[in-house]
Specification:
Layout: H1 2-11, H2 23-38, H3 45-55, H4 61-75, E1 85-91, H5 99-119, H6 131-134, E2 140-147, E3 155-157, E4 167-170, E5 177-184, E6 189-197, H7 207-212, E7 220-224
Parallel strand pairs: 1-4, 6-7
Antiparallel strand pairs: 1-3, 2-5, 5-6
Helix pairs in contact: 2-3, 3-4
Length: 233
């Protein structure tokens, strides 16, 4: 009798009922959850409960919830955190720049600067300095930064045990403001373009207002339908 009760407890079923989740599918659900976290798209508690129902359409929500609480958590012990963990939000368009790629970029950059200094040895008539000492003032670049409002709040997911950082892809959201900053390699800031959602600027949001508040000369505000950085903008 004790053996029968233990078997039924492991199955997570009521007396006389057979589990709708096979051992093979149970392992699949665990691996599926682990790989979702590795892909920066971890499952919330509610999503984990819905997954057994995806495999077994006949399983109702209560049965799926009982299965996760009684069997899934014990079977995944040591591999998945028993409680949801906080995940950092990311977007579906996010990419990573590896350390090796960074090293390659800086090497190419250094070679290009050396080549220009070798071929340009003249003296600046205004400053009396060699071109090689002024070159970084003429290397310009820009970078887009988006200040996002957190529409998702704190995301709680079931994460893989031992994983130090958890992330979850969220919808691309530009409900706040986008900034496109410019500058040069010497460290001087150039103008900044502020991109905001709407058809017209709000009263007082002029270019002179930006300079008064500390933005570099030439800074401006562009209005778009969704605050995205577009080719036209």
């Amino acid at each position: 009798m004790d053996h029968d009760l233990s078997v039924r407890w492991k199955l997570g079923s009521q007396v006389g009922q057979k589990s709708k989740v096979s051992e093979e599918n149970a392992e699949f659900l665990i691996q599926h959850t682990i790989r979702a976290d590795r892909a920066n798209n971890g499952y919330t508690q509610a999503q984990v409960v819905c997954n057994p129902q995806q495999l077994n359409p006949d399983m109702n929500h209560i049965a799926a919830k009982n299965y996760v609480q009684r069997i899934f958590k014990s079977a995944s012990a040591g591999r998945i955190n028993p409680r949801p963990v906080k995940a950092q939000t990311t977007t579906s368009r996010r990419s990573q720049y590896t350390v090796a790629q960074q090293s390659c970029w800086f090497q190419n950059y250094g070679h290009a600067i050396s080549f220009l200094r070798e071929k340009n040895t003249g003296i600046c008539n205004k400053t009396g300095k060699q071109f090689g000492k002024l070159i970084e003032h003429f290397i310009l670049g820009g970078d887009e930064t988006c200040l996002l409002a957190d529409i998702d709040g704190d995301l709680k997911i079931l994460g893989k045990t031992g994983r130090k950082k958890h992330e979850k892809k969220a919808t691309d959201y530009r409900g706040s403001i986008t900034m496109y900053r410019t500058g040069n390699a010497a460290g001087n800031n150039g103008s900044t373009a502020f991109i905001m959602k709407g058809k017209r600027r709000k009263t007082g949001f002029s270019n002179s207002f930006l300079e008064k508040e500390g933005a570099a000369p030439g800074s401006t505000i562009a209005m778009t339908d969704n605050a995205f950085m577009t080719d036209t903008t």
